[in-house]
What does this fold into?
Amino acid sequence: MVLGHYPIDIDHIPVLVKAGAIIPRYKGARSDALQDKSHLIMQLVPSGDSEFTLFEDDGESRAYKEQNAFAETRLAMSAPPLGTVGDIEVTVDPAVVHASYNGQVNQRSYELEVATRLAPLAVTLDGRSVQQVTSVQDFAAATEAWFFDSSLRQGVIRIKTGKQPVSSQTRFYINMDEGRPTLRQNLTRRRHT
It folds into this structure.
């Protein structure tokens, strides 16, 4: 397959993601048993309502099948349709632990990477304001903050939290400025000028 407008070489392989995608991941490790599951990264492509069920177990044994030793966590996102400006809500429901397992976490920190071309007005976590920082360095140093990175993948809102109990719901609210023109409106204006 040829993708003319995507740079493809041995170091750069594009990953095409459907609008509305919720992609949970951990930082890289050599095996599932070595994963730090106390920090969850979610890559999000807002568009409409979507959800994902995160399945976790010990990553080694068949205990998930033989003893029902696993947990499920529902991740949900609500956003306007792609190309429309509007607020974005991300919810992490309490983990449903079917039976305990080795390596099970009781608390975890979150890092969200929300694809958008516009910086938000504000971000809240469980109803309280999250501090905005203005540089990648300040974001890396903070325990809880948000940062709009316009240089990353055509714009990404990066949000991170300290440890949250997995037994409680965690809700992120991203307040966008609905008065700004949408990407489609900007393109239409450029064509007519």
Remarks:
- The chain has one domain: 22-192.
- Helices lie at 63-66, 136-141, 183-192.
